[in-house]
Amino acid sequence: MFYDAIENRHGLPHDPLKALVAPRPIGWISTVSNAGICNLAPYSFFNAVGEKPGYVVFGSAGIKDSLHNIAENGEFVCSLATWDLRHHMNMSSAAVPHGVDEFPLAGLTATASILVKPPRVKESPVALECRHFQTIALPGAGRYKQSYNLVIGRIVGIYIDDRFISDGLVDTAAMKPIARLGYMDYAVVTAETMFTITRPEVDVDGQVVPGSVTG
Ligand SMILES: Cc1cc2nc3c(=O)[nH]c(=O)nc-3n(C[C@H](O)[C@H](O)[C@H](O)COP(=O)(O)O)c2cc1C
Question: Which of 57, 61, 62, 202 is deepest in the core (most CB within 10 A)?
């Protein structure tokens, strides 16, 4: 099948886009209001988009509490959502009123970050401390008058639980990160689903030597 994505008349019972851009990492965004109330919510229109320095982005449908807080003070933290924390992560997405702290609601501990005010999720093995760079209101198109707000943040501090570092490498599979698929579906990274491919190289004769695949 093919359909015009601006018209978006795909003829399917549900919009398939999110099932097509999958898996998407989940940015578990914590912020704090100037009044001192913490906020936590998962965002799967999320990714890292650069390194040295690192940048992350996430997309918000409208101005949600996370965006309000970031507009107030320009800081946020992205904790890693993992298999062990999947129910907590889901609870933190509840549409509760502005001013409700999702940390206790989701049964999680807010622990102090090092360089920014918003706390990280203590139970999570990774946290990216970020300073706001820019928010871009993405333009609508066709019959969709509004789109998402894209928040861009520069990573200024990185917490890694030392238990997940072995032989100088982060053991991503041991952390079991979860990712969003389409509909209500998720995926999890484990040692069984991971594989390694080295980059192809161009030899002295200009021949491309394929990378090697393990797993
Ligand atoms: C796994 C998951 C991913 C989500 N991703 C997004 C997203 O990318 N953008 C968005 O606007 N809402 C997303 N949501 C919904 C928000 O988490 C939800 O609206 C939340 O209440 C927003 O919280 P806030 O108002 O405290 O920022 C997601 C929910 C879940 C469970």
Answer: 57
The response to whether residue 93 sits with its C-beta less than 6 Å from ligand 1 reads yes
pTM: 0.97
Ligand 1 center–CA 94 separation, angstroms: 8
Span 91-137, pLDDT tens digits: 999 999 989 999 999 999 999 999 999 999 999 999 999 999 999 99
Q: Separation of 150 CA from ligand 1 center, angstroms?
A: 13
User: pLDDT of 59-100, one tens digit each?
Assistant: 999 999 999 999 999 999 999 999 999 999 999 999 999 899
